[in-house]
Amino acid sequence: MHPKKLRELYFKFFQSKGHQLIESASLIPQNDASVLFNTAGMQPLVPFFLGQTHPSGKRIVNVQKCLRTVDFENIGDNSHHTFFQMLGNWSLGDYFKEEAIDMSFEFLTKILKLPLDMLAFTCYKGSKGVSKDTEAAKKWKSLGIPDERIVFLTKDNFWSAGETGPCGPSSEMFYWTGKKPAPKKFDPNDDTWVEIWNDVFMCLEKNKDGSISELKQKNVDTGMGLERTVAVLQGKESAYETELFQPVVKKIEQLSKKSYRDHQKEMRIIADHIRAAVFVLGDENAITPSNVDRGYILRRLIRRAVRYGKMLDIQKPFLSDLARLVVKDYGDYYKEIEKNKLFIFQELDQEEQKFALTLEKGLREFQKIAVNSDVISGKDAFLLFQSYGFPLEMTQELAAEQNISVDEAIFKEEFEKHQSTSRTAAAGKFKGGLADDSPETTQLHTATHLLLEVLRRVVDSNIKQRGSNITPERLRFDFSFDRKLTDEEKKKVEDEMNRIIDAGMEVRREEMSKEEAVTLGAQMEFGAKYPERVSVYFIGDFSKEFCGGPHVKNTSELGKFKIKKEQSSSAGVRRIKAVLLKE
Ligand code: SER
Q1: What is the pLDDT, as a whole number, of residue 558?
Q2: Which value, in Å, is the radius of gyration of the alpha carbons in the chain?
């Protein structure tokens, strides 16, 4: 079955069961600073498991873009991908276990027409005060699943997205991929049984103190890995042999004049990494390669692909050629990558060129260091990083190929120091979402500080900044809030902004320790990491914010503030676009 067909059938089936189709959220979490990328379909929906009303109702279906880096070293095997797509049907306080299982069963057996004989299931065994899920097992049995195809497990059958938050017991569905008929008894440790779908009965919440309590509402979170499912439905060893990756794999064969059969691992890694890089670069919240956080993950993906390309003797820059094929295949559904394709190609070209300049020399340096030693010191690994742009993982991979190790702890110490300097530099360079440092942008930047404080005073004191982007024409400001502003509130915000502008408040900057700034109650951006010494901007005694500038000297320089648009940005986040009119 073609991946597009599977997606279509999934959507259609759940729509016929009263689900509303929604688009994939951004790869970058908008209301969770604990993860760099969305790693599961449920992440963007967390506020709705907790009781917030979803604009599309209580039954939802979608495919979510996900990215997992914990599986980095597994990439190249049959079933792990850095970027992948997760199909999901969601009950936000609507149906629960029985109905969810009924629907999963119907989809697997009636729509995908999988023979019962090739299916097996796991249910939660119970632990730490949460009881064994006999209900789920009973339900599967009522649908004709024999006892020996149902296994109770602990670890794998309890899903939670993080240290705290919604969680619950789950039931996983497995498909037999062997050539011989499936054994009567299901052995979850036999990986001929491939997990294709997970139904999580999300009715619990992990609290900060480690205790587990009941959620206000009972939810269902399901996840079907599109890549894996397509592969097993086609009887292929992995998704790389399907339409999901074949055009890229074929192009790599052509560019390297080598065959996939002989160079499976290298080609799989390149194909996986280029696809992930395209989606990260093409995301509506675009990330570019850098040495920190998400940008560093992107850099690692691109550079690893370049190194593998070199191992295959690909002579010329090749990443954007491959990226074109990804955009061609995926851009009809994921419109953002089609829209941002020129940016994607340009960034890939730049990063590839940059790395090509140092890769060769770096490899020679690595050889010098590695010769006659059985461990690469943290300092040497850091030198390879700093002077030749080798991410730690690349040095580790090179070392492992020669059976030596890397002193990771010392590397990390050096790296941490370096990251905080880079973050400060990046904060200075991009100045918190500023397009440039023209007088107009600077004015709008100061207006953004005022806007946050005005929203907190006029609308809700819990409002926090979630993002901002400023061009010479307008400001765009994202903040945490879960409903539309009323016309009256918008008017009040504008009036208060203009009152402060007219009051001619002085803008001043002070440097202080992070602790001092926090004690003063200075606003920080959600999810941002700050160095020990920070710069804080004060506007009169009205607003205080962590910020690297630039700003105007006095609010009287700003002109008249006007809101152009107020809209939803993502779950629990609103967006205001506003301008300053010249008077
Ligand atoms: N959250 C679960 C998973 O990722 C089901 O969607 O497997």
Answers
A1: 94
A2: 26
pLDDT of residue 425: 46
**Which atom of ligand 1 has the smallest separation from the CA of 223?**
6
Query: Is the same domain home to 273 and 203?
Result: no
Same-domain check for residues 257 and 215: no
Would the pLDDT of 31 be above 80?
no
Contacts of 304 (CB under 8 A, 6+ apart): 269, 273, 391, 393, 394, 397
Q: What is the mean pLDDT of residues 28-55?
A: 87
Report CA(166)–ligand 1 centroid distance (Å): 12
3-state SS record for 468-516: EEECCCCEEEEEECCCCCCHHHHHHHHHHHHHHHHHCCEEEEEEEEHHH
Assess whether 278 and 229 both reside in one domain. Answer: no
Question: CB of 348 within 8 A of CB of 377?
Answer: no
Lowest mean pLDDT among 40-54, 80-94, 249-263: 40-54
Q: How far apart are CA 124 and CA 1, in angstroms?
A: 31
CA 219 / ligand 1 centre spacing (Å)? 13
Q: What is the pLDDT of residues 82-138, one digit of tens each?
A: 999 999 999 999 999 999 999 999 999 999 999 999 999 999 999 878 999 999 999
Domain match, 323 and 363 both: yes
Ligand 1, pocket residues at CB < 6 Å: 40-42, 88, 159, 198, 200, 221-223
Number of domains in the chain: 3
Residue 520: pLDDT band with limits 50, 70, 90: confident
d(CA 240, ligand 1 centre) in Å: 22
Nearest CA to ligand 1 atom 6: 223
Q: Which of 238, 268, 301 is a domain's end point?
A: 238
- Which pLDDT tens digit goes with each residue over 521-534? 888 876 666 777 78
Examine the domain organization and report whether 207 and 283 are in the same domain.
Answer: no
Which residues, in sequence order, are bridge partners of residue 573? 480, 570
CB of 243 closer than 8 Å to CB of 3: yes
Helix/strand/coil for 414: helix
**Measured from the CA of 41, which atom of ligand 1 is nearest?**
6
Q: Which residue minimizes the CA distance to atom 3 of ligand 1?
A: 223
- Between the CA of 39 and the centroid of ligand 1 the distance, in Å, is 9
Instruction: Give the domain range for residue 531.
Output: 439-581
Å from CA of 40 to ligand 1 middle? 6
Q: Which residue, by CA, sits nearest to atom 4 of ligand 1?
A: 40
Same domain for 470 and 333: no
Ligand 1 closest atom vs CA 86: 6
Q: Looking at the structure, do residues 382 and 445 belong to the same domain, yes or no?
A: no
- d(CA 43, ligand 1 centre) in Å: 9
Mean pLDDT of 43-67: 94
Atom 2 (ligand 1): residue with closest C-alpha? 223
* Residue to mutate (ligand 1; options 38, 68, 85, 222; most atoms within 8 A of CB): 222
- Best mutation site among 203, 221, 224, 229 for ligand 1, i.e. most ligand atoms within 8 A of its Cβ? 221
Residue 328: inside a domain: yes
* 140 and 281, same domain (yes or no): no
pLDDT digits (tens, 9 = 90+) for 158-182: 998 777 889 999 999 999 999 999 9
Q: Vertex 275, ends 271 and 279: CA angle to 5°?
A: 170
